[in-house]
Amino acid sequence: MRLLPSTAQRVFRGMSKMASGSQLIPQGDNRFTMSTTFNKVTTGSEEWYTPPEIVHSLGQFDLDPCFSPPSGERPWDTALLHYSKTENGLAQTWTGRVWCNPPYGRGIDRWLSKCARHNNCIALVFARTDTAVWQEQVFTTAAGALFLSGRIKFIDCSTLKAAKHAAPAPAVLIAWGENNMESLARCGLKGALVRFR
């Protein structure tokens, strides 16, 4: 992993060279539908979890405000405390270090805004750097981000196995708070670490 010095302006444009030979490529591919289903990427009726090795590589979290498995039982913990869909993590008070893999689609701006206000959070979202939420809420408030190499293969919640196909867009871990930026720097996940401020 390389820490890239202040390349945020080039990243904003979406096609900058991030490390030798790698690029951020604008995504306009609509072959998959991103659902606003709570904390899950869906194609058809399938639901998906974040691979546990991603969350666990970042250290202990105090809260996951949006992890609500369909069965009610979590296959692995992402934090010490979890808010379910019915508890509405957006309406709750957040305390401590937060892991946030928010519902994808419309409304993601509210989750990222709450991450910014809390300022002790790592969020996993798609690297849609051209969107208003990135321009107005991520680049202006976050310490930085780890743009993950390749695309994530999310975990099917019914089989607990990795998906056959990778996610429809590149993913990024966004850090609010210097402690979380340090976690991204030492997590061991492959990607390009970019400091925003």
| Total separate domains | 1
Query: Distance between termini?
Result: 18 Å
Weakly predicted, low-confidence segments: 1-46
The helix/strand class is alpha/beta
Gyration radius, in Å: 16 Å
Which sequence of SSEs, written as H and E, runs from N to C?
EHEEEHEEEHEHEEEHE
Going across the major beta sheet, what is the strand order?
1-12-9-11-8-7
| Count of distinct strands | 12
Please tally the helical runs, counting DSSP H or I stretches of 4 or more residues: 5
Beta-strand portion reads 15-25%
User: What would you call the shape?
Assistant: globular
Largest sheet features: 6 strands, mixed
Helical percentage = 10-25%
Mean pLDDT: 77
Could you please describe the fold and organization of this structure?
The chain is an alpha/beta fold and 197 residues long. The chain has one domain. The protein contains five helices and twelve strands. The strands form four sheets. Strands 1-12-9-11-8-7 form a six-stranded mixed sheet. The two termini are 18 Å apart. The model is unreliable at 1-46 (pLDDT under 50).
